[in-house]
Amino acid sequence: MKKLALLAALSVATMSAGFAQDLEQAKKVRQSMFQVAAWEMGTLAGMAKGEIPFDAAKAEKAAKVMNAMAISLDEVFIPGSYAGSKVRSEINTKPELFQKDAANFVKESEAMITAASSEATLKAQLGKLGSTCKSCHDSFRAD
């Protein structure tokens, strides 16, 4: 899983203007990013539920990966790259709502980095972070 996280992070970090215009590649990178985000959210949720022993260093790493994904969303949500994916058409008709959801994801994932220092603060912040995921999925993700 570390390789997948590294691959997704490197893919986003090395995107050039020309690369970003490759719509199929943007879709693949976006899907990889969300696989990594789901993995890291599973780590955080597992710790919050007591299913995984709490480890502040691992929780902080997971939060930092989530935040990196959140910050990079605008590079992979490119109009025209949604065909064959779970992105609903509302992303095109309600861009201001999508931008609001994305900004909330950045804000709450950033707050999770600090909250990861203790089990109690991680638990409190996890609900806020999870609500940003839910809000965007409810509006823009087809199941």
From TrEMBL:
This is Cytochrome c. Keywords: Electron transport, Heme, Iron, Metal-binding, Signal, Transport. One of its GO terms (molecular function) is electron transfer activity. It comes from Wohlfahrtiimonas chitiniclastica SH04. Residues 1-20 form the signal peptide. It holds the Pfam family Cytochrom_C_2. Binds 1 heme group per subunit. Heme c binds at C133, C136, H137. The keyword Transferase does not apply. GO terms for cellular component: periplasmic space. The keyword Phosphoprotein does not apply. GO terms for biological process: electron transport chain. PROSITE patterns: CYTCII (PS51009).
